[in-house]
Every structure is written in structure tokens, then in C-alpha cells.
Amino acid sequence: MGQVTLEINGKSVQASQGITILQAAKSAGVEIPTLCDDGRLEPYGACRMCMVEIEKKGRTRLVASCLYPVEEGLSVQTESAKVTKIRKMLVELLWPAGQQYAKKYGVTRSRFATGMADCSLCGLCVRYCAEVKKSNALYFKGRGIDRKPALVDGPHATCSSCGECFSLCSGGWVVASRA
């Protein structure tokens, strides 16, 4: 696999072709905030906290850095005005899971009532159960504002009560649902 050269925050970075902007930034020592990223799992892009602004052929746009592959000559800004504005809104929307970034983005509270105060819908618990444990004991139930993680119920339920999903949950839903 070849190497590509891109620019992250004005710094030239060499990266392996096929990796994501998030991976390239991490290897270059550039921190990009994330809520749904876990090295054991496939990239998902649910939280959008890793949003960055890219410039390619004179055009700019916002992309999820955990999903977007590096490209030769790509220019990436991790803290542009657009990115900061988006992340500030995301911290509010993903409250309380996003509180770890609240101070950095100047957010003291959320203006939004989600109905699922304990869950940011990052999918870490569902994805871990499916991809790592191969159990599929958790799933997303409902759509839109009614969407929430749920345990599979019935005769085919496969949750082994291992508790490994507890440490992944930044909002506390998994722990609260098992009580």
C-alpha cells in the first residue's frame, strides 16, 4: 500500500493510502474529538464529533474524519470556524455524552430535550456486542426521536450478561437498562 501526502492544520503529513483522516491525524499527534470511535470496531460515523473541514481542488466541505479516506494533496482543518460551530451544536445535541467536550467548546448546558437523556445513540454498545462478542444481543429499536438501544428479548435472546458494554457507554444507558 502506498503513501500519500496531505496537510492537516497547515502541517504536511505522510499517511498510508486507505486509512482515514482520523487515523492519519492520530498518528501525526493531532487530536480530533470523537464519541463513537473505538479501535476494536469498524468506523461508524454516528456522533459526527470528528467532523473536519477538507479542501480539495479549491472546494471545501465538512466530512466525518473517521470515515473519510486520506487523499493525495488533501487539506484538512480540524478546528476551523465551521467545525467549531458544528461541534458546539453536537455537544448540546449529544448531552450528556458530549459533556466531556463541553468546556472546550464553551457549552454549559443543552438547549434540547431529547427524551433519551442518557443515550447519545453512538452505537458503541450495539456494535461491540455484534462485532466483538458476535452476540447481537443489543439492537436499535424505533426511528427518529423514538430510537433507542434495546436488549433482544424472547427465546432467542443471546446476552451472556458479560457486562463488557458497560465501559463503552458514555451516557449510562446500558447500566441503567440492566438495573
How is the secondary structure organized here?
Layout: E1 3-8, E2 11-16, H1 21-27, E3 51-56, E4 59-64, E5 75-77, H2 81-93, H3 124-131, E6 138-141, E7 148-151, H4 173-178
How many strands in all?
7
* Top-tier CATH class of the largest domain: Alpha Beta
Order of helices and strands: EEHEEEHHEEH
Helix content: 10-25%
Distance from first to last alpha carbon: 48 Å
The chain-level structural class is alpha+beta
CATH fold-level name of the largest domain: Ubiquitin-like (UB roll)
Average pLDDT reading: 89
**Could you describe the largest sheet, including whether it forms a barrel?**
5 strands, mixed
| CA-based gyration radius | 18 Å
Anisotropy-based shape? globular
Q: Enumerate the strands of the largest sheet in spatial order, edge to edge or round the barrel.
A: 2-1-5-3-4
- Give the low-confidence spans: none
Number of distinct helices: 4
CATH architecture of the largest domain: Roll
Please state roughly what percent of the residues sit in beta strands, choosing from under 5%, 5-15%, 15-25%, 25-35%, 35-45% or over 45%. 15-25%
Indicate how many domains the architecture comprises. Answer: 2
